[in-house]
């Protein structure tokens, strides 16, 4: 409703504080709405400059429609409630001594983990904002990415600027025995497949590596490495198993700098070792030269195989990854800087996007 969109115009960090944050104007085909094909309309519902520093990631909590977290290079994380009531910043998580590069929600949403350029992993209670644990990198390296083991949320994987992938037991703060691996370059992106068996890692040398992960112990076994973009960087990885007869295989979505969004089919090694391989399925053009852009799959696959990506042209682009031609089906414009991060909530009713100027926009989906 129009009333709901009006209420989502601003965050209110403190109910007693002032409002009136800067708003950006959407360039659209009509007042407050962006027309697009197939994937519906996403009028901008909320615009909030959360920080003067770039927003490196936005992510909704698992199975939550209105609980959103963001991290910034100013060293903070923000936990936001979009509804019911006026949207508000519930908690501002402070403690890192440098920019926050990545974060992840636990499966039950009771813990946030974050990595920072200060070389630490931190555990947070998002309900009260407490830092539960601080885990320094043993090499003193900047930590650039993190991911929970989906079958064992006691285990978190972190990637470092010294080329290391390391599994950490967050209950003890100690590294898992055998839970380390080395990449050719700085580890910029991590993700698990849905079963939690395969860990994917991307680096700043343009390669994507895979590890077999024991969910009970955290032990990593190097499985494969594919040079995806020679001389480039892998800034985002998303794994997805497609529930479709046309594309039954697991897939990996890869942001490869410069200027490529790639969709790979994950294939099993013919030798029977269980090591996964990658077979290129689609390539989509993006403007990606300098920023650590992120992309994501659309969570609902009932009628379309969708992917969403931020762009250095300050737009958000939607692709139908099932199409070999004319794959772009929608574009959202409204940001004033490169869009670094995008995320859907669980039912695709909301999309959040964060940019290099520190602004987060939440878009509400409206079906035609």
UniProtKB/TrEMBL annotation:
Pfam families: WD40 (PF00400). It comes from the Eukaryota. InterPro entries: WD40/YVTN_repeat-like_dom_sf, WD40_repeat_dom_sf, WD40_rpt, WD_repeat-ST_regulator. Keywords: Repeat, WD repeat. The keyword Repeat applies. SMART domains: WD40. GO terms for molecular function: promoter-specific chromatin binding. The keyword DNA repair does not apply. WD repeats lie at residues 93-134, 332-368. Residues 1-50 are annotated as: Disordered. SUPFAM superfamilies: WD40 repeat-like. Gene3D superfamilies: YVTN repeat-like/Quinoprotein amine dehydrogenase. One of its GO terms (cellular component) is nucleus. PANTHER family: WD REPEAT PROTEIN 26-RELATED, WD REPEAT-CONTAINING PROTEIN 13. This is WD repeat domain 13. It comes from Zosterops borbonicus. The lineage of its organism: Eukaryota, Metazoa, Chordata, Craniata, Vertebrata.
């Amino acid at each position: 409703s129009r009333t709901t969109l009006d209420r989502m115009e601003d965050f209110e960090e403190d109910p007693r504080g002032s409002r009136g944050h800067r708003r950006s104007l959407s360039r659209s085909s009509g007042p407050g709405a962006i027309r697009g094909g197939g994937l519906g309309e996403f009028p901008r519902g909320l615009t909030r400059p959360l920080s003067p520093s770039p927003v490196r990631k936005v992510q909704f909590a698992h199975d939550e429609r209105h609980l959103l977290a963001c991290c910034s290079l100013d060293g903070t994380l923000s936990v936001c409630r979009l509804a019911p009531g006026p949207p508000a910043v519930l908690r501002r998580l402070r403690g890192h001594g440098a920019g926050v590069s990545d974060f992840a929600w636990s499966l039950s949403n009771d813990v946030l983990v974050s990595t920072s350029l200060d070389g630490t992993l931190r555990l947070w209670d998002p309900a009260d904002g407490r830092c539960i644990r601080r885990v320094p990198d043993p090499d003193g390296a900047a930590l650039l990415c993190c991911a929970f083991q989906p079958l064992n949320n006691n285990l978190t994987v972190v990637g470092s600027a010294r080329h290391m992938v390391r599994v950490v037991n967050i209950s003890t703060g100690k590294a898992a025995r055998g839970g380390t691996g080395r990449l050719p370059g700085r580890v910029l992106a991590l993700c698990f497949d849905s079963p939690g068996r395969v860990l994917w890692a991307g680096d700043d040398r343009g390669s994507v590596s895979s590890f077999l992960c024991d969910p009970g112990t955290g032990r990593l076994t190097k499985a494969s490495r594919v040079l995806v973009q020679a001389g480039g960087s892998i800034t985002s990885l998303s794994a997805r198993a497609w529930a479709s007869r046309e594309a039954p295989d697991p897939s990996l979505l890869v942001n490869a700098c410069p200027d490529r969004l790639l969709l790979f089919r994950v294939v099993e090694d013919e030798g029977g070792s269980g090591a996964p391989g990658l077979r290129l399925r689609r390539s989509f053009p993006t403007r990606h030269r300098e920023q650590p852009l992120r992309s994501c799959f659309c969570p609902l696959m009932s009628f379309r195989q969708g992917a969403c990506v931020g762009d250095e042209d300050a737009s958000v682009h939607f692709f139908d990854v099932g199409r070999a031609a004319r794959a772009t089906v929608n574009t959202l414009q409204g940001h004033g800087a490169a869009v670094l991060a995008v995320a859907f909530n669980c039912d695709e009713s909301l999309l959040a996007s964060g940019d290099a100027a520190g602004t987060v926009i939440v878009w509400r989906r409206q079906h035609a």
